[in-house]
Design a protein that fits this description.
91 residues; mainly alpha; 30s Ribosomal Protein S18
């Protein structure tokens, strides 16, 4: 039990945050542009996918909560219509 507590202490910095976590102040691209996510605009939606085809979370993409919900729904609709891939296979 003492070794688990010791490992927890080594994984934290003095301020309590983990070593690899950097929080950037991102601004929602849809709020500033005055647009909403649309499944027909697959080029814009592809910016919010990872290299493996996964939907990026709010912390990585910088989208607000309201637009993240709409973005997720638009990506799922575009995938269903074969505008975006479900999975991108590694090469």
């Amino acid at each position: 039990m003492a070794s688990k507590e010791r490992n927890k202490k080594h994984n934290k910095k003095e301020n309590g945050h983990s070593r690899n976590y950097i929080k950037a102040n991102l601004v929602c691209a849809f709020c500033t542009g005055g647009k909403t996510p649309n499944y027909k605009d697959w080029e814009t939606l592809s910016h919010f996918l990872s290299d493996r085809g996964k939907i990026l979370g709010r912390g990585r993409s910088g989208v607000c909560a309201k637009h993240q919900r709409r973005l997720t729904q638009a990506i799922k609709r575009a995938r269903h219509l074969a505008l975006l891939p479900f999975v991108i296979s590694p090469q």
